[in-house]
Specification:
Layout (H helix, E strand, L loop, with lengths): L5 H11 L4 H8 L7 H14 L1 H17 L4 H22 L4 H21 L8 H22 L1
Length: 149
């Protein structure tokens, strides 16, 4: 990005890739004589108060998201597909083994958490509305799988 120094660009790249601000600051700048509190303060200021650097961090993160083949929608679809396979295994075997049960509950919990993100937070919403929304999302996931196949 125009207007950033080499150190600022390196710092932005490192922070966007998941490194802590302090760690990125230590990598990008000579901090040998700085106290940890000074490194922390400078790193925080660079990431949050420098408009060009914070914009660059956001730009790099967004590019990574845009280029990622994995999305929440695909994750949801894969989990629903996996649950269907687990269901078939249970029906075939006529029982639920401990490992299968543990995996099943884990996937259901993850789906519940994903649905919390997409469902409106309304305490007065009744169970029928919730089930209708859930059913719609599951059907969308299955329809998407059929289109991709």
């Amino acid at each position: 990005m125009a207007g950033l120094t080499k150190n600022q660009e390196l710092f932005a790249q490192l922070v966007a890739s998941g490194m802590s601000q302090s760690g990125a600051y230590r990598e990008a700048y000579n901090t040998a004589k700085q106290k940890p509190s000074t490194v922390w303060r400078n790193a925080s200021a660079l990431a949050n108060e420098n408009a060009k650097v914070s914009a660059r961090i956001a730009e790099i993160r967004q590019k990574a998201i845009d280029e990622s083949p994995w999305t929440k929608q695909r994750s949801f679809s894969e989990k629903v597909s996996f649950l269907e396979k687990v269901k078939q295994t249970i029906e075939r075997d006529g029982r639920v083994g401990q490992g299968t049960g543990t995996v099943l509950l884990g996937v259901v919990k993850e789906l519940d958490e994903m649905l919390e993100d997409i469902m409106p937070a309304n305490e007065n919403e009744n169970d029928n509305d919730l089930m209708a929304a859930l059913t719609g999302k599951v059907e969308e996931a299955f329809n998407e799988d059929e289109v991709e196949a």
